Amino acid sequence: MKGKTAQIAAGWFQKSISTTHHRMVTLGLLVVAYCLPLWLADMAVKVLQGSSAVLSGIALGLGLFRFWQQRQELTTLEPSEGDRWLGYFLIGLSPWLLPLGFANPWISQVIWMQTLVGIALSSWGTTVFRRYPLPIFLIVIGLFPEPTLVAKTIWKTFTPPEMLERIMAWSGTVGLRAIGQPASQPNAVSIALPGGTVMVDWGCSGFNMATVMAVASLVVGVAMRESPTKIALITAIGVILALLANIPRIMLLAMSEAYWGKSVFEFLHGFWGGQIFSGTMFTIYYYVIMAIHNGKFSRRLAK
C-alpha cells in the first residue's frame, strides 16, 4: 500500500514539473495551500464572534463547485500568449508578497485571490471570466476581505455624511410617535424619550445587516438555481427587509433605554439581542424567498 501511494505521489510530482505551465500552476497552488490555513483561522475567529463569515465560506465553496461542474468544458479553453504570461507574472509575484500577509489576514486573502486569477489566466485566458461570471463572483465574495467594510467605504464616499443614521433616527422617532410615545429628536441622529436618549451610530444603521442579506441572497439564489431576475429580486428584498426591520429594533432600543433599565438595553443591543433580531428577520426572509421560489409571488403580481 505504501509503495503504491509513493508511486502515485511520484507520478503527481513528475507531472507538476513536466512543463513550464505545470511548474507555475504548482507554485500557485503552493501559495494557495499556504494561505488556506490563515483564511480558515480568520473565518473561525469571526464565526465565534458572531460574524456572518460563514456566508463567505459557503459562497466560495459554491463557486468552486460550479467550476467543478464545468471541468470538461474548461479543458477546451486555450489562453492567448499575453494572457498566459500575465498569469505567470501574477503567480510569480505572489510568493514575494506572502510576508505582507503575516500580520494582516486580509492581505493574505488578496494574495490568494491574485494567485487564483493568475492560475485562471494562464490556464484558460480571459475567456473564463466572460463565460463564467457567476462562479467567479461567488469566489470573489468568498475571498473578499471585509466586504462590509468595503461597502461602507463606498457608501460613505458617495452619500452625504450620516445619511443612513439620520434616516433611521427619523424613522424610529416617527414609529415611536405612531404608537403613542412622546419621542423627539434633540439632533439629527438621536431619539429622545422622557426617560433617556439614544444615538443612532453607524453600527445601528442597518447597513451591515443589509450587506449580509445581499450576500446571503446571492448565495441562496445561486444554490437554488434561480434565474438572474429572481436573484436580483430576492437580493433587493433582502436589503430592503434588513433596513425596514432595523426601524422597530431602534424603537425597541430607545424604549429599553428610557423605561426598562441599562441591563435590558445592553442585552438587546449586545450579542444575544442581535442573534434574536437576526433569527427573526431571517425567518421572515425564508418564507418570502420560498414564496418567490415556488412562484406564488409572481402569480400574485400577475393577478
Amount of beta strand: under 5%
Shape: elongated
The main β sheet shows up as: 2 strands, antiparallel
Supply the number of structural domains: 2
- Spatial order of the strands forming the largest sheet: 1-2
Helix content: over 70%
Gyration radius from CA atoms, angstroms: 24 Å
SS summary, helix count: 15
Give the class from helix and strand content and strand pairing: mainly alpha
Given as residue ranges, the uncertain stretches (5+ residues, pLDDT < 50) are none
- Order of helices and strands, N to C? HHHHHHHHHHEEHHHHH
Cα separation of the termini: 67 Å
Question: Mean of residue pLDDT?
Answer: 81
Number of strands: 2
Describe the structure.
With 303 residues, this protein is mostly helical. The chain has helices spanning 2-16, 20-48, 53-69, 71-74, 81-97, 105-124, 127-131, 133-143, 147-158, 163-178, 207-223, 228-260, 262-269, 271-293, 296-302; strands at 190-193, 196-199. It has 2 domains: 2-132, no CATH class; 152-302, no CATH class. It contains 15 helices and 2 strands. The protein has a two-stranded antiparallel sheet. α12 (228-260) packs antiparallel against α14. It starts with a helix and ends with a helix.
Topology:
Blueprint: H1 2-16, H2 20-48, H3 53-69, H4 71-74, H5 81-97, H6 105-124, H7 127-131, H8 133-143, H9 147-158, H10 163-178, E1 190-193, E2 196-199, H11 207-223, H12 228-260, H13 262-269, H14 271-293, H15 296-302
Antiparallel strand pairs: 1-2
Helix pairs in contact: 2-5, 2-6, 3-8, 3-11, 5-6, 9-11, 10-12, 11-12, 12-13, 12-14, 13-14
